[in-house]
Every structure is written in C-alpha cells, then in structure tokens.
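Morning!

This is the sequence you dropped in the shared folder:
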Amino acid sequence: MKNLKYIILPLMMLVVVSCQDDFIDLSPPASITDDVYYTEAEHFLTGSNRFYTNLMGWGDQGVYSDHGSDLVGYTEAGGMQDYGRGETQAPESDADYSSAYNAIRDMNLLLSRAADYDGNDIGEYVAATYFHRAYQYWSLVQKFGGVILVLEPLDVDSEELYASRNSRYEVVAQILADLDGAIAGLPNEANIASGDKGKISKEAAMALKAEVLLHEATWMKYVGTSTDGDGSASGAGSAGYNESNISTYLQDVVTLTKSIIDGGTFELWDQNSSLDNLSSNFLFNLEDGGSNPAGLDKSSNKEFIFYGKYDFIFRRAGTLVSHVYQGRVKPSRKMMDLFLCSDGLPIDQSPLFEGYAETQSEFQNRDYRMRAYFTYHQSLGQIPQTGEVLLNGVNNFGYLNSKFMSWNWGTADAYRETKTESYDMPFIRLAEVYLMYAEALYELNGKLSDGEMDASINLVKARAGLPPVTNAFLSENNLDIGEEIRRERTIELYAESATRFTDLKRWGIAEQELGATKYGAVIEGTVYENNDELYDPEAYAYPEETTETGVGLRKCLVVESSSVRNFAKHHYLFPLPTSQTSLNENLLQNPGY
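The structure's back. Tokens below.
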C-alpha cells in the first residue's frame, strides 16, 4: 500500500470560509504518495479539513432523524423503519461500517506523519484529527458496540486486518483519549475567525465528550453488559467494563457541560418576540435574511456548538430536506400528547387542555414547540386547520411536520428541482448541553436543586413558553424531575441525530416503547368521527383502538399495530456486515443475528 490512493482524492472543504478559493478542489498532484505528503504544515491543514466530509450530511436523513421511532407515525418499508420494527437482518455490506474505517485509515496516516513532523505549527490540525477519529469510532460504537480498534496506518499484511473485536469499553476509552487530545489542542469558539465558523472548537470536543460519557454511563446503569459480546465464549465483549465508571463519567459530564455553560460563548436562539413564538421552527431552517420573516441570518445563531456547515453558494444540502422532513417525521399520538400545557402540567392534569374535538383544539395553551414543529408557518399569527389534511390513507393521520422544513417550501416548487436548501445541520447545541447537565445531576443524585433546574432545564422551558419547575411544583403535582428531563430531551431534540433511538436504548426501555402500537389522530368525540369527507376508516390497515389520551380512554386511528413491532434486546446493536465477517474469521457477529 505504498501508493495510497485515498490521499489524493479531492479535498473539498466543507466549512464556509472567507473566500471562494477555499471551496475549490484542493487535490495535491497525482504524483504525491504517502512517502512525500504530510511534510509541510499546509498538508496537515488540507488533510484535516478533508475530514469534515466524513461528518453526517443532509443526505443521511434516514439515520439522522427519528424516522421509524415511536415518535413518528409515518410508516414504510426499509431502513430505520424496519429497524424500529425489529426487522433488521445482517446485511452483506454496510456503508456506515466501511466508510468509517476508510475515514479512520486517512486519520491514522495523518497522525502517524504528525509524530514524525519537525515543527510545532500543526497542533490544531492534529487536534482536529483526533476529534474526527473519535467521532468515527463513536458512530461505530453506537451502531455495532465493540469494533476493531485500529490506531496506525495499515498495510496489506497488517495483523489488525484479521484481529478480533475490541469491547465497547475499550473503544470508548480510546474515544475519550482522542477527545482529550482534541480538547487540548483546539481553539475556543471565540477564537475561531468568522469566516471559519463551523470548524471544530474546543467546546465542540467537550460537548461530544459529554455526550459519549452520558451515553455510556446510562448504558452501563440501565443496560449493563446484557448486550455485550462478540459471539465468542470468552467474554471478551465485556473486557474493560468497570461499574465504578458510571459515577465518574456522570461527574465528568457535569464538569464539562458546566464549563461550556459558564463560558458564555453560546446562547439559546430565542427570537420569540419577533417570530411569533416560533424560534423552535425557524432555528432549523435558518439561512439568509430571506429564510424567515424577521430577516435573521446564520450570524444570529450562537446556539449550535457542533454542526455541519452549509452555504447557498458553496455547499447546498443537495437533497430534498423539506420534502423528507414534512412527510417522513410526522408525529405519532405519543409525541403530540407529550407537550405540556402552558401552566407546565401534562395534558391529563391541566385545566387548560382543550381536548381534541376540533383539529386545532389540542394546539391551544400548549408548549410553543408543538405549534413550531407541527403546523406550517407561511402565515404567522395563526394555527392552521390541520384537519384539512384528510385521513384517507395509512400515511395521513392528522398531522404534518415542519421542523427542518423551509419557510418558503409551500410556494417555492423550485426546491424540488434545485435542492438548494442550505441551513446548517446541528449535531450538538446549547439546549442539549443544558439537558445533559440536568440529566447527569439527576443520575448522580436522584434530584436537582431549584438552582440547578434554573441553570439548565428551566432555560429550555422558558423558550418554549413554559413556567420554571421547582421542587415544590413537582411535589404538588406528583411529577418526577427525572421523567421531566427525559420529556424535555424527547421534545427539544425531536428529529435530530436519531436521538430517540439512542435514548431509548441507553435508558433500557427500547423494547417497551418501540414494541407498542403507534396511534395517530383521536377519532372518538372529534371532527373525524362519522365524517366521511375527512376520514375513511377503510383506508387503513388496522381498525381503530381505544387507548389512553389527554381526556381519558378514546378510540384512535392505528397507524401500526404492536403485532408487527418486535424490537428486542439484541436489536440494541446492529449486525456486522457479512462481507466483513467472511473475510475475517476472528470478527464474530453480534449476538442474535
């Protein structure tokens, strides 16, 4: 492997920088091989910039969104929909597996060359590479559990090509070590030039480390070693497991998130006063001043900490973002009923809840995010008549989604042809940091003080038009702060980074939640009941069922029955591609496949 062709692929920059030249093809001459490349600081800059191409993009929406989870009522065959039903089988190939290792190979080469480089002007590029390698291994761990750790450039006869899998705990230890290397060498967000926004900052590395730590601490606490294993009888799948790491990891989450919060660099994008309380809609389709009625552009957004950078001129989404999100993440009954009323109480406890009789009734006196996510905002200041969407087929059930849907989508059919949408893609933002801080404190102590709530969950609630929670309020209304933190994560991060799947698994409740029937609109006692113009029950595969709603037991439309949803414990991990297990007899399959 002397002539490493992956070195000379186009090194297209994926961050918006100060001039157009930075977006052009940055390929080194074709004669360059690994023997002579990475000899100058500019090589390390170009090489590390290339790794941004390996971050998830808008074309990966099926993985990025909550498509197929219990929160989404839309159903179809394939992909994450099949996964949510427990229908996953071992594939012959998996791009998530092969692409990650291709990227890691490039990163290992840069890090190897950096060790031999004579100079001190590449520290930031090396730190960024550590971040990107951690990101790739973290993606692998979340999907497959333990995988083979490769930390050096490989040759065709390298032993690592035929190695056994490392345990998830060993891989996570390496991820954390890489993130420590990134944190040590990356600049603070405040020191990144305006033209380079989107590049990885120290705070982004801290936020990703906090995410890893929280995920793994709660996985160990609620799932334990029950999903470990590489198919061997030796128990190697649990190597490195240490229960004491649970509290250590959680305390580290508190420290990291508190540091980001106290740094003051980031702030929630709260433009409710100028956007009719719809900040939680327009934040996710923010482009230039024409992307919203307040004329705000991306420079107003200081909430995104780790994100994919897009630009109308240099890097468009290249896919039908609005189209996909409008239809494929329509909410289920469960999602709609999670939103609190404006008094801070659940709908089954609040006197403000107006029920379901008319299609707009349930939107009244609710969390701002409900209207922001699930009504269309071509005209502000009103709640659209969602019942105009007829219940005439299995994929129509009374709701639509408008999170990540362009403000101009309804009138700009050109989007379907040009695929020009170019809003930034958030991976971790400040709202999630607040919620990670709150959750880690709860998992450590079983409670939060009023001051800790005010410094975290209450800030997220305030943007949603909800009153702050206190311990007295929780006690008076028989509410649990742990459940309220989970509610906030579910609502705030809806359709972002497949958060729902990862949360359900790390909380150890995926079988329960993903195995239940998915409901749509309430039929009994509503405008749909006995209304042939709005609702045709014969168009659905399942008859109505009675289930608990905000006003008690009511007949609801069934989008998908529990009889076809069979998510099991072994589905917490995906199967390895059979092409890889066939090539390497030591690479054993995940249990259950």
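Headline: The longest strand covers residues 552-560.

More detail when I'm at my desk.
O.
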